Amino acid sequence: MKLRQVVIIGIGLFLLIGSFLLSGILGGMKDPPKVETPVEVKKYVKTEPVAYKSIKTEIEAFGRVRTAESLDMIAEVSGRMSGGAVPLKEGQSFKKGTLLYKIDDTETRLNLQSQKSTFLKDLAAILPDIKIDFSDNYSAWENYFNSIDLNKSLPKLPEYKSNKEKTFLATKNIFSSFYSIKSAEAHLRKYRFYAPFNGTISIVNLQSGSYVNPGNNIGKLLRSDKLELRVDVATSDIDWIEIGSPARVVSESGHEWSGMVTRIGEFVNQQTQSIDVFISIVAGKNRMYDGEYLKTIIPGKVVENGMIIPRSAIFNGNEVFVLNDSTLNVEQIDIHKMNAETAIFSGLKEQSDLVVEPLINAHNNMRAYKLESEKDIDLEKKDGSGSKLVKN
Predict the structure, then answer these.
(1) Tell me: the pLDDT tens digits for 340-355?
(2) Any stretches that span the bilayer, and where are they (predicted)?
(3) Cβ pair 211, 81 in contact under 8 A
């Protein structure tokens, strides 16, 4: 048994040593691994030469259309109300001068005619005295007496020619009666309400047949031929707008109207943290509606010696990259105006190569190269020098 164990152990050692020697021989026959040279990565960036010019600015804002004039129809007299020339209904349109409603004026009209009759009697009583004492003015008073129509407004009194004639007329209560009648005529006109402008009835509180008292709100009118747009403008843009500036008003459907800035608010809206700007709109062939949401484009002040770049090229508030001899340098700029996607600036030397795209992991004094054309770069191949070309 001992001899057999020794033989087995010897054979195992022989096989182990043999396999070790064989692997060493075979390993020595392989080619040594190649050592690759590190690939140089060239970073290409998009640049534009700095060139200044006069730039016209624009401010875009959004808001809702509203009528420039609205009017509450308040009753000034009492009586039974009836309809006018158009139905007193919400949404009803009308023209200027249209009778919208009337209030029963029978009693008031009869009282007025009674006053005119009394006035005629007083005039008839003084005509003989005028013919004798003021004969040079008698024909004027006679013609005035004949021109009076009880169903029409009382005409203006003839001019007196002397203080004596004036005193005579005053003692006969001619002036007092005349102005009492004119006051009654003015009161009678309050029984009929005529439209003061072209518009639409927006609210109706009382219907035809209702009894109204002075102070009752019958309804509300909106002027349709005089509209304005109220927009919210950021406080940073408000200094670029001037009263009287023209404006374009545009709808989502592409309809366009002309307008003009008429008013600029003097305080900040607490809800929007912006300032209200009001634009009067010139009516065009396309109709717009009260409450419609529209966009306006207002030309702003001109920036002299400025340049436009994407906002994304600016970092840290007012810093950009400039490419000098294939080296990125951080420069500060003077920003005149920020737009939604662009910025207007100055402060760099003209003809400098300004980087006009955002850079990732870039830093001051970093090596980079100007991107002349997209075709100059092959992102998957290497150039003849073994350098890899990478676009930012």
Answers:
(1) 899 999 999 999 999 9
(2) 7-29
(3) yes
264 and 282 share one domain: yes
**What are the phi and psi torsion angles at 82 (to 5°)?**
-135, 165
Strand 327-332 to 274-281 pairing: unpaired
Query: Amino acid identity of 160?
Result: Y
Q: Is this structure's pTM higher than 0.70?
A: no
The domain in which residue 99 lies consists of: 70-104+191-223
Nearest 5°: the CA angle 217, 221, 223 is: 155
Distance of CA 8 to the CA centre of its chain: 102
- Please give the structure tokens belonging to residue 120: 């005629």
- Specify the CATH number for the domain of residue 98: 2.40.50.100
Is residue 287 exposed (0-12), middle (13-18) or buried (19+ Cβ within 10 Å)?
Answer: exposed
The interaxial angle of helices 174-189 and 163-171, nearest 10 deg, is 70
169-200 pLDDT tens trace? 999 999 999 999 999 999 999 999 999 999 99
Residues 243 and 371 in one domain: no
